Amino acid sequence: MSLSRSPSPHPGGGWSSPGLTPASGSSTPTRGFPHSHSPNTLAPNTAWAAAKAKSEEVRGYPSFSTRNSGFFSRQKSKISGRLPSFHGTKSPHGYVDKDVYGRERWYRSAGDARGVLGMILRRGRARLVLGLLLVCFGYLFLWGPLTRLYRRSPFGGGRKFVIILGSNVEGGVMELKGAREWAIERNSIWNKQEYATTWGYELEVVNLLAKKRYSHEWRESWEKGDVIRQTMRKYPDAEWFWWLDLNTWIMERDSSLQSEIFNSLDDGVYRDINENNPLNITHPLPEFYLDELGRSLEGDGKTDSLQMLLTQDCSGFNLGSFFLRRSLWTDRLLDAWWDPVMYEQMHMEWEHKEQDAFKYIYQSQPWIRSSVGFLPQRTINSFPPGACGDENNPTVHYQEGEHDLVVNMAGCSFGRDCWSEIYKYREISRRNNRSIFTILQDGVYKWVFGDTDSSSSV
Amino acid sequence: MQFALPPRKSPHPLPIARSTRLPYHRRKQLKTVAIFAIAIATILYLFSHFTSSSSTSAVGPAGTTGVVIVTILDRKSFSESFIKKIVTNREDYAKRHGYTNFFASSSDFQEAVGDAPQSWGIIPAVRHAICKHPQTKYFFYLSAHALIMNPTQSLKSHLLDRAKLESLMMKDAPIVPPDSIIKTFTHLKEKDVDLIVTQDSEDLSPGSFILKNGDFARYFLDLWFDPLYRSYNFAKAETHGLDHIIQWHPTVLARTALVPQRLLNAYSKDSPSASADGIYRDGDLVLRFPGCEARGGDCEEMDPYYMLWQKRVKRA
Fold first, then answer.
1. Which of A289, A331, A341 faces B128 most closely, judged by CB atoms?
2. In this complex, do B228 and A341 lie within 8 Å of one another by their Cβ atoms?
3. Which of A311, A343, B93, B273 could pair with A381 in a Cys bridge, judged by C-beta atoms 3.0 to 4.6 Å apart?
């Protein structure tokens, strides 16, 4: 109540004491104005006089009009006048004492509210409702951050995985980097960032700028190995390093690497290359001088000895998407992969550079075979139509209904359009991973506007 | 009467005060639940730590004890008497110290080596020895044109003992003499050593080396034997191949101990390529005849030393 200050003077001389009438101070009294006319006496042809009077009203007492101009100061008594009271508005004495009435009503209403709340709380069911509400709010606002926190913690194991994304390929040195290239880069990085933050993985976007030391007749295309080594140094706690080319798209943000691959390494991986052998590699090696491990079909058969996971496409090894595990074996592989003597002899024949070099040492050096595992191609490296043939091959090409994890637009820079492919799969992935709200929203849109969904037209 | 604050009709207990009013058994229950939760969390944490630390181990332990001496005999160009001398020399040494001999025939590896010089056969021979003796810890390759001159000295006391090896290995020494820019690591420890090798005045010497069984041995031998090295026409075949991989592949260098030549690979007195202190002196373990090796076939220079050795064996 505003009784702590004196009643404010009113334009036109009168005053109103706040608290007496609910609307006091907010509207001007109808009487007491020197030029006011009551509506009855206002002749139709004196409209200008009324207008003049009005304008005089406005101009009349500028010093006072600032007083009650704020919304709250004007509405205060109205607001307080409408506060709920649970008991009758009249005092038991039958008359209204304004001081006591106001105060009485204040504390009584507060006390009653507390009492009612307490009463509700005392009932078990209401408490349950309150609890559920709390849980709902907690779920809405805290669930995401908490699960992410957990996944990044040592329990969640998210930090055991590092995604290495080769970006800025040759850095626009050989060919100008246009809007499409920038769009590919931006989108591809965003896509991996989303996936990495969802699951608590680390993401290392590496710059594959053209450098002389990686150019032809130096260590051509060997930045891959160097970059993986650097990343392994940078994340000393991580175990698996996932190389991804820039022209890839992670389609299923909600499937973790653990659930897709690493929780069932025994079942998902084949080590015997004869299961799918487009290169016709002799396996196992027949040499009599090799020990059992060197001549075995499946290495030592232990999951722990798998240090590299890759896929084969229709023409053999594909290193657009592969895993390496931190180990001595991996150090040795990265070391043996590039060798000046081998490179000197083969650099004209190894068209696919490090991929061909790896293929070569896999064939010629038995120690490598026992730790390499192959994943079915569509686990981490589905192809779009156009790569490996145009017809839909269910072992090679992306199958929309089956939620393949990754699409690799392999070879899209040779006569295909990388950006339109990436865009297409971005939209498919968006459609596949809609939340319930978005699905509902889309349904309503479809219902209202007919089937004009932009994503379905792509 | 006006009050600064409305009086409390039913004073609400403070939340802290409420907890003290919890029934005793309930508090106890909560306590047990909390203790259990913490215990389970701790166990899970430890468990996850243990599993992650053990996951990086590779194939199980290979050899644990013993030494296999690998010798390649060229039965086509060696005379029977020469072969007999070599075999006697090796077998005597093996018998004294409980070692095993592995004699390979160079013709076995002709196909594997292919068009390259037959001296590449060292590598599949050692690989074959490992295949035949998977439980043995050390493999000592010694050229056929070499004699073990000190029968009483065991490899362990001579070289393989931890303190001994750490005091003997050459640190920060150029790998290829006299002045290659790649040098052996200064911080190498005995437990990291898988390959013990010597150098003469020109190259690393693959005529006499000790290799520890295990993953590294497979890797090292397979890499060394890569077909592209064999087809590269290194002037000194596998010797230059060895120089090459140890200089270019740090994962090999990191496991290699370079020791002074005479410890494992003393040359006969007229060899031009012996290092500064590489000529055989009385008491050295091994005497090698690089001149005979280059020529192939039998080795007459060996005869006086063989007689000397026979005397020593009788005395010992």
1. A289
2. yes
3. A311
If asked whether residues A392 and A302 sit together in one domain, one would say yes
Q: Which of A24, A51, A79 is the last residue of a domain?
A: A79
Q: Report the pLDDT value the prediction gives residue B62, as an integer from 0 to 100.
A: 54
Range among A84-98, B54-68, B190-204 rated most confident: B190-204
Q: Which of A79, A112, A138 is the last residue of a domain?
A: A79
Where do the structural domains in chain B lie, given as residue ranges? 65-315
Length of chain A: 458
Residues of A in contact with B227 (CB under 8 A): 364
Give the CATH number, domain containing residue A214. Answer: 3.90.550.10
Q: If DSSP codes are grouped into helix, strand and coil, which group holds residue A424?
A: helix
Measured between CB atoms, which of B45, B60, B112 is closest to A154?
B45
Q: Could you tell me the residue range of the domain that residue A396 belongs to?
A: 160-433
Contact B207/B265 with Cβ under 8 angstroms?
A: yes
What pLDDT digit, counting tens, does each position of B65-96 carry? 799 999 999 998 999 999 999 999 999 999 99
Is A370–B59 a contact, with Cβ atoms under 8 angstroms apart? yes
Task: Give the pairing type, strands B256-258 and B100-105.
Answer: unpaired
Class (C level, CATH) for B65-315: alpha beta
Q: What is the ipTM, given to two decimal places?
A: 0.78
Per-residue pLDDT tens over the stretch A29-66: 444 444 444 444 444 455 666 666 666 665 544 444 45
Q: Across the interface, do B131 and A346 touch by the CB < 8 Å criterion? A: no
The angle formed by the CA atoms of residues A166, A380 and B47, to the nearest 5 degrees, is 95
pLDDT over 80 (residue B17): no
Residue A415 has pLDDT above 70, yes or no: yes
- Cα–Cα distance list, B260 to A5, A287, B227, B263 (Å): 103, 35, 31, 6
Q: Model pTM?
A: 0.73
| Residues A364, B130: C-beta atoms closer than 8 Å | no
Q: What's the pLDDT at A300?
A: 86
Residues A66 and A178 grouped into a single domain: no
Q: Which of A95-109, A252-266, B228-242 has the lowest mean pLDDT?
A: A95-109
* Nearest chain A alpha carbon to B131: A291
Cis geometry, peptide bond prior to residue A9 (ω within 30 degrees of 0): no
